[in-house]
Amino acid sequence: MKQATALDILKTGKNVFLTGSAGAGKTYTINQYLHYLRARDVAVAVTASTGIAATHMNGMTIHSWAGIGISNELSAKDIARIKKRTVVVERIERTKVLVIDEISMLHRQQFELINQVLQAIKENTLPFGGIQLLVAGDFFQLPPIGEPHESNRDKFAFMAQAWLDADFQICYLSEQHRQKTDKIAVAGNTYYGLDLNAILNQIRSQQFTPHIMPALTATAEHVLADNRTRLFTHNVNVQAINEQELGKLTTAAHTFRAWGEGDEKLVETLKKSVRNTPELVLKLGAKVMFIKNNTELNVSNGTMGKVVDFVATTLKQPNKQTNDSPSKNSPSKNLSEPLDEQGLAADATALLNAIEQEQQADMADLLDEVNGGQSQQTRQTDEDDIAATDTADDKLSELLYPLVELNDGRKVIAEYDSWRIDDEEGEILAAYYHIPLTLAWAITIHKSQGMTLDAAEVDLSKTFEKGQGYVALSRLKQLSGLQLLGVNELSLQLDPLARGADQRFQAISAEQEGEFLTRSKKQLNDLHREFIIQCRGTLDKEKIAAYENRAKQQQKLIEKRRHAVQQLQSLADDAAGVITPTVLETKALLDESLTIAEIAQARNLAQSTVMGHIEKIAEHFPRANIAHLRPDDEWLQPIDKAYQKIAKRDDKRDKDNDGKIKIRAIVEELRNAYSYNDVKLALLFLKPHGN
To answer: Phi/psi class of residue 409: alpha, beta or left (left: φ > 0; alpha: ψ in -120 to 50)?
Structure first.
């Protein structure tokens, strides 16, 4: 099914299951529908089955949204208690459309509970209280975690009675968009005629050509950046790699110890659920991942980053007397609040000011790093307030908390957080306290679900569950970002139940699409209008147009900020001499003997950016294929003479801080007859001049 058809079906108000292979455009289709609803003032709730997936959608977990937590069953008392929670009741009552992304990771029983809660709060016996339900995902992902005795049949949401009651329209997207932007194929993206999408589709169909294994094993020769993610099937391999990488860091170690309180057996249960060592050792430069959602910091279970500092702060350490979890007065702080890219700012001018202020702060931080300084985050505590509340049993402690720079550039302080079990009255039965971080040079394949990775080293040699291989490979955007270390006989197999369901979904989607396409344009428009009216939305063209204009203006501002952040990151990478994935992509094209102009066109980059990549490649890869770029001697000789002339006069103004002759000096000596790129390229072939 095409995305446009799926959108037309969604606009009729039907419950929809949106699925398809990686790169088919599920997220894009959801975002298009969200934009349509918001422009018409229809209340829509965006949720996902996991924290990281919810973050991608700028939403919250469905467990939190519906008030069910991690429960697998709800008694009448539980429902009554949820109905007393004003925040939960208000958001459910106003919601007309509910989106649940990554439905494959939501347990069947929890799907039933969501239906139960919505019917109770809406006081409506229709499925899910009569609201439109859009669930999206791919059941070829790993199944939800359940009890040891449960089979996948007990876990998958499509096995729930509530799934049947919802009477979903199946929209199985079939178009591929993931690699269409490549004008010229990147080396390492295709082996034996197979790219990543072709490999994934063979796994989905379980119909393999003889070339799939040679294509996958060929990726073992790929050279990935040092900051690549490593995916393993077993936690023991993950721990070994993380401990090894931590040991390579020469910075001081900081140890954070966990503790619990309350019922011992419940504390032990919490301890196991946290899946972290009782003692967490961190160092500057450690790659980490959050293991708990925190809306205050706008991080989720799975958000990744790097420790860039340890912040000294005076505060009350959580203790066994208070049962306090970290509060707004604790050191948890988002040091650079993100902009909401889905919602609309009421005032575009205010938004622009916020963006400019954030850019200035980012620039200051990066320039500080580039110039060799160290950005310090300071926090002050009102000593009078502390003195008023301090007791003999509640002592002040000088703590050092990890300052984490997230992959999106934000910096947050991670403090002690709590995992709790409450009774029916909300009283704490047990609590477990720990820093919500874990080392993340390597992670398990199960933990990687919901992530999109530019580059990953993957080891499937110990695959123990069908579907693990598909999940790992589908995290990547392109085959050039994969380094596959090994496979076994289970690596490319899929769960038979999931495969059977997928085939059935495809058949139903085709059948329903055929019926839907018989409707006229007028009939569709009438159905679309009726649903908006039913949701008490607006059909006012002026209001819709005003929203569209604000949305376009905000998107431009967001793109402006994104571009600025990319430039700043590039500046920081240049200063650190980092070989990034984007540089390696340029190297792959160089290996195919493409020219600078062809690389710039293929990658939609400026030629000056490509030239910068080539300089790094020449420095770090002495045997890199750049011979085809060599200018002829008539081109090189004038630049060589200009270089020697400048070197001979030995004027400090012609040199940079490292004593190298500035490119500008050579360009000016040649009276601008050659561009900066011309000179940079020539110098690569005029060694040993030292530039």
So the answer is: left
Burial class (CB in 10 A: 0-12, 13-18, 19+), 236: exposed
Distance (Å, rounded) from C-alpha 127 to C-alpha 116?
9
Q: Show Cβ contacts of residue 28 under 8 Å, excluding neighbours closer than 6 positions.
A: 3, 177
For 252-271, give the DSSP string: PPEEEE-EEEE-HHHHHHHH
Residue with tokens 């009675």: 161
Q: What is the strand order of the sheet 456-459 is part of? A: 442-444, 229-232, 456-459, 482-486
* Surface-to-core class of residue 360, CB atoms within 10 Å of its CB (0-12 exposed, 13-18 middle, 19+ buried): exposed
Q: Establish how many alpha carbons lie within 13 A of residue 68's alpha carbon, considering only the half-sphere containing its beta carbon.
A: 26
Amino acid code (one letter) for 416? Y
Q: What is the DSSP letter of 391?
A: B
Grouping H, G, I as helix, E, B as strand and the rest as coil, residue 78 is helix
**Residue 100 falls in which region: left (phi positive, over 0), alpha (psi -120 to 50) or beta:** beta
Spatial CA neighbour of 19 closest among 454, 494, 508:
508
pLDDT of residue 382: 34
> In 3D, which of 553, 681, 559 has the Cα closest to residue 608?
681
3-state helix, strand, coil in the chain (%, to 5): 45, 15, 40
Q: pLDDT band for 273, please (50, 70, 90 cuts).
A: confident
* Cα torsion angle, 582, 586, 587, 591, sign: positive
In sequence order, the 6+-apart residues with CB closer than 8 A to the CB of 511 are: none
C-alpha 256/C-alpha 416 separation (Å) is 9
Length of the chain as a residue count: 691
Measured between alpha carbons, how far is 66 from 262 in angstroms, rounded to an integer?
27
Region 248-272: what's the mean pLDDT?
Answer: 87
Residue 98 structure tokens: 């509910």
pLDDT, one tens digit per residue, over 99-109 is: 999 899 899 99
Q: Which of 375, 295, 285, 364 is nearest to 328 (CA)?
A: 295
Nearest Cα to Cα of residue 490 among 511, 471, 469: 469
The residue to which tokens 């959801």 are assigned: 30
Hey, what amino acid is at 117?
Answer: V
Q: Does position 346 have pLDDT exceeding 60, yes or no? A: no
Whether cis (ω within 30° of 0) applies to the bond prior to 688 is yes
- Domain segments of the chain: what residues? 3-177+495-539, 250-335+359-440, 630-691
Q: What does residue 534 show for φ and ψ, rounded to 5 degrees?
A: -60, -35
Q: Residue 191 and residue 215: Cα distance in Å, rounded?
A: 5
CB atoms within 10 A of CB 30: 20
Structural contact between residues 285 and 402, judged by C-beta atoms closer than 8 angstroms: no
Strands (E), 116-274: 132-136, 169-173, 229-232, 254-257, 259-262
Which class is 3-177+495-539 in CATH?
A: alpha beta
Element (H, E) at 428: strand 428-434
Residue 481 to residue 24: CA distance in whole angstroms: 19
